[in-house]
Sequence to fold (294 residues):
Amino acid sequence: MDTTVPKFAIRSENGPIGAEITGLDLAIPLDDATFDEIESALYRHAVVVIRDCLQTPPQLASFSRRFGTPQINVRAEATNAETPEVFWISNITKDGQPVGSHDAGRYWHSDLCYLDAPSKVTLLNAIEVPTRDGMVFGDTRFAAATAAYDALSDDLKRRLEGLRAANGYRYMWNKKAHEFGLRPVLSEEELERYPPDALHPILRTHPVTGQKCLFVCEGYTHRIEGLEASESDELLRTLFEHLAKPEFLYRHKWQVGDLLMWDNCAVQHKATSDFELPLRRLMQRCTIEGTVPF
Fold:
């Protein structure tokens, strides 16, 4: 059997982020040179999709390991029982229980920013995509955190230099519970089973490219260390609004079999919740452990 990897094409999107890879079959084992091309494209474009690449959970976990150590999500009930590195994202219920996370991605965020070492890379594979009358729903939007940093005024960059902010899973949990009603509101005692706040620099340096990135997440970042609450809230609100400006955005329209990868330091993302059952959405995700932000 011929195991030569065919030549594939990389086409960049308009704007600061986003690229598409076509002609690549991950069923054929990748040599190191081919994988290096994929990884280089990811760091160059921050968001990259491989088309027609539907994976089994073990296949997705295996490919993900090429990028580093897969993370197992703190929500054990939303992971694949046989392949716990794989996390389910869907709007589907089976036997009265949600399949995976039903409210993932409702706010701008960087994956697992609530950990001391947030995710480096996320891989999200589309199994079912909500479609009606030829229209696709449930797009994912991405914001270029590097371009957002570059566009800050010099005065604001100086003001933010050296500041750290708290990123909280516990904060996010009840924020979502109250706003969307798809998860239970938890007591302080119940929340203690989840990680405590992680303090990260607001201006983060990319560990590979060396670029500066704006690293505050609407869904998780809730307090700037050393500032009064009112000043912290106002500054965070300004930064959240800045990050979501149209000139920094790329919008991904899903196709079944898409394997979408993104660089969690260079971008943030947010789901578009513009559909409901009977339109079904089922995705499987792996996240790769990153480094402590600096």
User: Anything to note?
Assistant: The domain at 9-289 is CATH 3.60.130.10 (Double-stranded beta-helix). Residues 229-243 form the longest helix (15 residues).
